[in-house]
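Consider the tokenized backbone below.
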């Protein structure tokens, strides 16, 4: 530890870049355990659309753990799709698990593509504790993205510049914070003193190859029962209004189930929207100059970086 900070290894990158497989190999090599930094894989009953790795719950040392290929995973498969899981919830859980993993002389690996989750831990982001305001949220739900953007620009110009302008849920949350607290949503991105020392490794692919991987995975997800997974969730009275079902894949299947698009059209929309999401992820990650980029899933380069990091006093 440096200045009392726990060391963590972060494996990040755009969707479909091979983070899961690489992280499993590295965790086995360095006696590690994995904390998922994926805002969708946290939900139960949602496996295909979230590309959740196949795992099983097992009791180890009197604690139930989600095990993937022999490696314990945390912040994965733990929240009912009807429940709310906030950034603050994730941050608290991640810090707790990092402390626990380190206390057992193991290496915490943070693995995933949700940038805000990564930064919440690496930069110890100050997160507004203001809970969602139901009446305020309902008033925003009926508005279009264009209307929400206009409102956000007027009440919180700082957040307007920073926020993902295509993510309605994030727009609504930014408005909630700004209106209910009188403070800019960008305060969520302010940093406190670090509580971890992090090595960040990013997986870099040529866009053409990454897009092909996305296309193949989208086709496999559809073939493996994505539509049936969504139908099952709807039968259990979960709805597309929930944050859990707002992710790519799930909301697009809704077009098909409502008869707004046919199977071929929906699959192409899923591919297109996933490619766009991957490009946005890369744009955000590239801004962080602390990330060590490797070519595709270069295991030897990753292993060298981690070995040097863990040996460094």
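A designed sequence for it:
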């Amino acid at each position: 530890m440096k200045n009392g900070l726990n060391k963590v290894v972060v494996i990040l990158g755009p969707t479909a870049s091979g983070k899961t497989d690489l992280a499993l190999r590295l965790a086995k090599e360095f006696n590690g355990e994995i904390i998922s930094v994926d805002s969708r894989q946290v939900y139960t009953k949602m496996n295909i659309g979230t590309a959740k790795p196949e795992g099983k719950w097992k009791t180890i040392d009197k604690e139930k753990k989600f095990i993937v290929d022999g490696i314990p995973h945390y912040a994965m498969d733990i929240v009912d799709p009807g429940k709310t899981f906030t950034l603050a919830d994730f941050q608290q859980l991640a810090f707790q698990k990092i402390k626990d993993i380190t206390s057992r002389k193991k290496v915490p690996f943070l693995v995933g593509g949700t940038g805000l989750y990564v930064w919440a831990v690496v930069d110890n982001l100050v997160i507004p504790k203001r809970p969602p305001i139901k009446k305020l949220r309902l008033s925003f739900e009926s508005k279009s993205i264009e209307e929400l953007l206009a409102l956000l620009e007027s009440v919180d110009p700082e957040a307007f510049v920073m926020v993902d302008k295509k993510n309605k849920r994030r727009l609504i949350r930014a408005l909630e914070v700004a209106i209910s607290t009188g403070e800019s949503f960008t305060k969520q991105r302010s940093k406190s003193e670090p509580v971890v020392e992090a090595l960040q490794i990013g997986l870099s692919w040529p866009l053409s190859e990454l897009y092909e991987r996305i296309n193949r995975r989208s086709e496999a997800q559809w073939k493996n029962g994505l539509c049936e997974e969504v139908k099952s969730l709807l039968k259990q009275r979960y709805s597309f209004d929930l944050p859990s079902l707002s992710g790519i894949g799930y909301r697009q299947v809704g077009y098909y189930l409502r008869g707004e698009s046919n199977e071929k059209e929906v699959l192409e929309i899923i591919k297109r929207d996933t490619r766009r999401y991957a490009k946005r992820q890369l744009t955000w990650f590239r801004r962080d100059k602390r990330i060590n980029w490797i070519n595709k899933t270069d295991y030897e380069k990753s292993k060298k970086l981690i070995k040097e990091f863990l040996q460094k006093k």
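Residues 83 and 244 are 8 Å apart (CA to CA).
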